[in-house]
Amino acid sequence: MAAYSDYLAAAALLWGPAGEFACAEAGRLNREHFAGSIPPLPIVIGLTAYGKCIGATLSGPEWLESPRITLAPGIFNHGGALMVSDVLVHELIHAALRLRGEEPGHNEAPWCRMVAELSPTVLGRDVNAQPVKPRRVPNPARGANPDAPKTIVVRRAEPGSLTQAQLATWPHSARPAGYYDAGQRIPVPTY
Question: 26-30, 44-48, 95-99: which has the minimum mean pLDDT?
Fold first, then answer.
């Protein structure tokens, strides 16, 4: 497995200050929030697999020893250092869960547990994070139509808990409006 210094050198060579920042920040976040438990991971700046994703964590092919994190180049210019840091902590959760053999999905119990555990140090406050499951609720159509079923099944967060969309975009979803405006922009070459 490659050492942290190998990934830092490669990222600096390929993406200059943006690559250096991303690797150094991943190392800092790993030490501060994961007790250094995540081995050095390659960090790529480039296109992500899904059109609107600003970060992604890939693992699975036999030739890939450990997860690989990809960051969209736009986050370095549009949200700057603050957004890069938040995307990295999000992706490091995926990596940590994969490395532990736990389910890394946004609406799974391990993800929710880590979001709740990390929120005090990442956001400075607690959040209630739990998987959003189908549940029965009173049917709002019942008032206008007495023949309508009394209840319907919906996928809705428990009161006071993060929604499924908020879980999928944490910590961004928990940041105040304008939070990323203060982030120092980092130039990054794109292709």
Answer: 44-48
